[in-house]
Amino acid sequence: xxxxxxIVNINxxxxxxxxxxxxxxxxxxxxIEHRKLREFGKCIACLQCERYCPDMALIIDTxxxxxxxxG
Amino acid sequence: MTKELxxxxxxxxxxxxxxxxxxxxxxxxxxxxCMAMEKLDFQQKDTVMVSGIGCSGRSAGFFDLDSVHxxxxxxxxxxxxxxxxxxxxxxxxxxxxxxxxxxxxxxLLHASRRNTDITVICISNAIYxxxxxxxxxxxxxxxxxxxxxxxxxxSPINVQALVTAHNCFYARSTTFxxxxxxxxxxxxxxYKGFSFVExxxxxxxxxxxxxxxxxxxxxxMSYRENYKINNDTNKxxxxxxxxxx
Amino acid sequence: xxxxxxxxxxxxxxxxxxxxxxxxxxxxITPASEILHELVNKKTVKVLxxxxxxxxxxxxxxxxxxxxxxxxxxSGPGFSLMQESIGLAHMMEIPxxxxxxxxxxxxxxxxxxxxxxxxxxxxxxxxxxxxxxVFYPNSVAELYEFTFNAFNASEESLSPVILLSDSYVGHLYxxxxxxxxxxxxxxxAPLGTxxxxxxxxxxxxxxxxxxxxxxxxxxxxxxEAKQKKVSKKYNNYEYIENKDSxxxxxxxxxxxxxxxxxxxxxxxxxxxxxxxxxxxxxAIAKKYKEIVVMEMNTGQYANEVxxxxxxxxxxxxxxxxxxxxxxxxxxxxxxKKKK
Lengths: 71, 245, 339
Ligand SMILES: Cc1ncc(C[n+]2csc(CCOP(=O)(O)OP(=O)(O)O)c2C)c(N)n1
Ligand code: SF4
Ligand code: SF4
Ligand code: SF4
Ligand SMILES: [Mg+2]
What we know:
The complex is a heterotrimer. By secondary structure, chain A is an alpha+beta fold. Chain A is built from 2 helices and 4 strands; from the N terminus they run βαββαβ. In chain A, the strands form 2 sheets. A two-stranded antiparallel ribbon of chain A has the order 1-4. In chain A, strands 2-3 form a two-stranded antiparallel sheet. The two termini of chain A are 21 Å apart. Chain B is built from 8 helices and 8 strands. Chain B is globular. By secondary structure, chain C is of the alpha/beta class. Chain C has 2 domains: 3-233, Rossmann fold (3-Layer(aba) Sandwich); 237-338, 3-Layer(aba) Sandwich (Rossmann fold). Chain C has 12 helices and 15 strands. Chains in contact: A-B, B-C. Chains B and C meet through strand 1, strand 2, helix 2 and helix 4 of B and helix 3, helix 4 and strand 9 of C. Strand 2 of chain B pairs parallel with strand 9 (197-199) of chain C, so a sheet runs across the interface. Residues 6, 8, 24-27, 29, 43-49, 60 of chain A line the site of one iron/sulfur cluster. Residues 54, 96-98, 125, 127-129, 136 of chain B line the site of magnesium ion.
């Protein structure tokens, strides 16, 4: 089975940089740099961060290799 | 295209971000409420949200529904008045532990006795968050707060006993146990009669920091440590979460 | 038209039903309980006996928001408990009727004896600035009529209207005509029709809370203007002119019935809409050298009248719930002589 991949959408207007997503992510996809949340493209779409973000600032789009048209 | 979190349509998203502190559990509970309502396809025209006063009391104002922000402690009688005047409405309350058990405790006793068909979600953060972190009715024994600098000497209120004494629906969960909390609210909303969901939630600013937590993630983890799901009981132990019907 | 012998409290209950009362929540208290007792037997009204008066007022705030014409009735101790939420109802602009059948206070006082000690509590009892419309009838027929007015004024002003009574008129039996007075319609859309947010916080249209002082000032002005506009329809007072007298005796509620006994010696002015004070009193007062306010408290209305008229007003406080005509006569004589 192909490994799921996720595309992370951060709504910086909503993000309060609380760090929950940083700690909750199993693949260390997030870091806070200069008081701003940054992500590193490693997302495996486990959706933990989307669920625990108290500020509705994250949306994770799931990119599944089989389903993604390659054009 | 970015997917849409459709349950967020239950909120007035233009009001986001909330005025709550970074990492506050209130936002997680807002989401849980939205998801449960979406699962049940609640409509704007038949749902009303009521809150009392406190950080948690600001919840009602975020919903894209008719909502009522009552004075401190009075969410329950207002919600009962609404429900009894129009039984077709789904009436939900989201409010704080100080609001529902402290100043409004007498109403909890009687709303459950009357078994009024409303659903109450208590954001149970064991503290008076809004006023700076004073001891609340759910503050644990020995816990340090602004008003219990040497540790709380009074036992926390036994909400389970109060609510189940009148054979009402009682559920306990935590913001860490997201799916479990969602299930609790989902079932509570379908329950005919008085249903009460107590969700332990982190107040990092006015509680966690004072007790040595570095951030709200650590508080979430403490819920994972301290609470175990028990789906098969009619009385939850102090360290258990579950549903009692 | 049917004539009926009714007690004051019963008349309030009956009129409330006729005025469209849908929902009543209350807590037993002497001398107001008969209203609750009367209403539990009415099929068209949902009646809740709550755990206390705080719950009662909040339940009717909820029911009124949900679209039900709503009322509660109490006496001083319960009225005190309701104050915080009366402020809430003004802030959220909710139509309500609150009946206060006054008894002797402070505190538990003398539960079965009449008093008029809650006059200022009606106006200033809750914190912050608000502008209540308050009626205080003095007979069973008038209690009946003004229950309609209270409901109508509350719907028109979207605010809690207070119907004052006392254990004397509340327990009085008189024969009245069961008139069907006109009824004002609901304008406030019930809950479950939109996405409005009702809150006690100072709020702007699109925001659940604001700390903009201009928004707050504007809102307080709006409350005042609204009260002024609606109360114009209810300029209710009674004036018994006396060309041979240079003294105007002001009394209301139970005490005004006593005042009638002295109409040979005094001109009499009886406000029925006691707040906002009917402006007409200014013109009437000009005709008299002296003004005496006789009331069952230590000068609550007298001070308000004095403030409005900018002239000295004499007090005749009748305390302790007992009305002794001889004593009142001699006190009035003394006041007349002193001048
Ligand atoms: C009658 C009254 N007393 C006191 C207050 C001050 N007050 C505001 S919020 C609050 C405590 C709220 O605690 P809780 O319900 O636990 O809400 P939280 O802020 O923790 O979410 C208090 C005491 C008030 N608003 N009204
Ligand atoms: S959890 Fe949400 S608010 Fe907190 S840092 Fe992550 S995106 Fe921002
Ligand atoms: S979805 Fe999972 S893997 Fe992806 S960023 Fe969020 S927590 Fe990390
Ligand atoms: S003080 Fe506590 S409860 Fe209030 S918003 Fe901040 S973290 Fe949340
Ligand atoms: Mg709290």
